[in-house]
């Protein structure tokens, strides 16, 4: 199970008051994840994932990954979104760790992804349409992303040919 840091119910309830997620109904540690503590939250407004970033994760790296999630969702990719606190922040602190709440997507984790699953992920990435400047952690011009997309499409075609 990927829970390295325990969280008391009262401490979690106080933390959630800073976010527009409603009142805590229940929570449990979940096995998904290998480096961080992850919890499935059930609140009066729905289900969420809480991640406490453990010592191996640099807090300075989090804005890039959270920004990427938001960027992909804004481009139509089905992915969870970070929940913004009432004060406009995304990263909070809980149990002495950087903590983030993200929206919950229904589904199952694949235990044994196949080449077909990988090809589907590659196609979804290749189909992403990037325009203008993408600001994740630094800025990337659309032409750079367009070239990366072109290369990904070539790789996908080669993978399809290989798979038959």
Description:
The chain is of the alpha+beta class. The chain has two domains: 9-103, 2-Layer Sandwich (Phosphorylase Kinase, domain 1), CATH 3.30.200; 115-163. Helix content is 34%, strand content 22%. It has helices spanning 9-16, 62-74, 115-126, 142-163, and strands at 24-29, 37-43, 46-52, 92-94, 97-103, 133-135, 139-141. Strands 1-2-3-5-4 form a five-stranded antiparallel β-sheet, with helices on one face. It has a two-stranded antiparallel sheet with strand order 6-7. The longest helix is centred in the last third of the chain and has 22 residues, at 142-163.
Distance between the termini: 38 Å
Strands across the major sheet, in which order? 1-2-3-5-4
Structural class label: alpha+beta
Low-confidence stretches: 133-140
What string, H for helix and E for strand, traces the elements in order?
HEEEHEEHEEH
Report the CATH topology name of the largest domain: Phosphorylase Kinase, domain 1
Q: Notable features of this structure?
A:
Phosphorylase Kinase, domain 1, alpha+beta, five-stranded antiparallel β-sheet, 2 domains, 164 residues, 7 strands
Topology:
Blueprint: H1 9-16, E1 24-29, E2 37-43, E3 46-52, H2 62-74, E4 92-94, E5 97-103, H3 115-126, E6 133-135, E7 139-141, H4 142-163
Antiparallel strand pairs: 1-2, 2-3, 3-5, 4-5, 6-7
């Amino acid at each position: 199970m990927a829970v390295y840091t325990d969280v008391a119910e009262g401490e979690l309830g106080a933390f959630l008051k800073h976010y527009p997620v409603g009142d805590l109904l229940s929570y449990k540690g979940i096995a998904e994840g290998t480096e961080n503590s992850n919890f499935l939250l059930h609140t009066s407004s729905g289900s969420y994932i809480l991640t406490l970033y453990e010592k191996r994760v640099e807090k300075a790296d989090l804005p890039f990954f959270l920004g990427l999630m938001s960027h992909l969702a804004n481009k139509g990719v089905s992915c969870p979104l970070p929940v913004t606190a009432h004060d406009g922040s995304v990263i909070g602190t809980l149990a002495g760790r950087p903590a983030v709440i993200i929206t919950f997507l229904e589904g199952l984790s694949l235990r044994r992804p196949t080449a077909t699953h990988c090809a589907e992920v590659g196609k979804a990435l290749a189909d992403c349409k990037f325009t203008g400047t993408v600001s994740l952690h630094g800025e990337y011009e659309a032409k750079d992303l367009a070239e990366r997309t072109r290369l990904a499409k070539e790789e996908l075609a080669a993978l399809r040919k290989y798979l038959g």
